[in-house]
């Protein structure tokens, strides 16, 4: 089967997508129209052109975190946030995604509290439960926040997990990896885990072997990126062996790593080493709006750069399902992908 056809058509799962970073230009324009209609001053105008970061962009990883402020200006009211959620789910669905875990940091705005922020996304997901795409929410803790703030977000996540067990499935740590220490967030993450939430951590985005070891020893359900873990990429033999032994699945975001300069180019991306060593990997987008990509495009790039055959790519999509947080959805999604594999004779790897 031709890759041009395979990548969009194969049922895929997206496990690492930040809501605000995933807003497409079309969604942002629709949100701007909404602000005009309701008469709320739109302060994002001068900044919209700065939202997308391409490969040749000179901005680095830290600069990229500033870019999110632009999206944040467009998701200030509950109505806009609900619209952003719905439109983003539909875009992923159109791209052949059948299950998504969106993540977002609860934010207080002049129009809503942190509690309303999570509630709005959860309600929008429930209202879209009839769509073929199944959606869940991972609540994010930003590592630049204080321990007190992190603890209150964990408490919120726990109470919402009880209220919306069908929607809120996990908690994660993200934000500028040059700021804050992982160990400070362990109590908040641990309380969430005890309450039944799954945990994923942005791990090894910058060279910090001690923190990578602490994270692996914490045994999260998944990690994101994992750039500086292999010794050739800023990790050590110890971090690499620990990851291989742990078999913790890694959310791989190719274009994001290139565009933030975490990785110099696609050919030297650490995916190659992980795949060779049988570390479980899941192809994800991270911020499809900011990095002008899509999940099917990431699959396509992966196949092209690492010379994967259609059957191998299909196997990647299938294996990713083992790592979704909504365990009750796994069987049906696997069946969907297996049907696609059988129909297109992609069984042989
Ligand atoms: Zn991320």
UniProtKB/TrEMBL annotation:
Domain Adenosine deaminase span(s) in chain numbering: 11-337
Keyword entries, A-Z: Hydrolase, Metal-binding, Nucleotide metabolism, Zinc
Pfam families: A_deaminase (PF00962)
Cofactor requirements of the protein: Zn(2+)
GO molecular function: adenosine deaminase activity; metal ion binding
InterPro entries named among the record's database cross-references: A_deaminase_dom, Ado/ade_deaminase, Metal_Hydrolase
A biological process term (GO) from this entry: nucleotide metabolic process
Swiss-Prot/TrEMBL catalytic activity: N(6)-methyl-AMP + H2O + H(+) = IMP + methylamine
Family classification: Belongs to the metallo-dependent hydrolases superfamily. Adenosine and AMP deaminases family.
PANTHER family, per the entry: ADENOSINE DEAMINASE, ADENOSINE DEAMINASE-LIKE PROTEIN
Annotated protein name in UniProt: Adenosine deaminase domain-containing protein
Organism: Leptosia nina
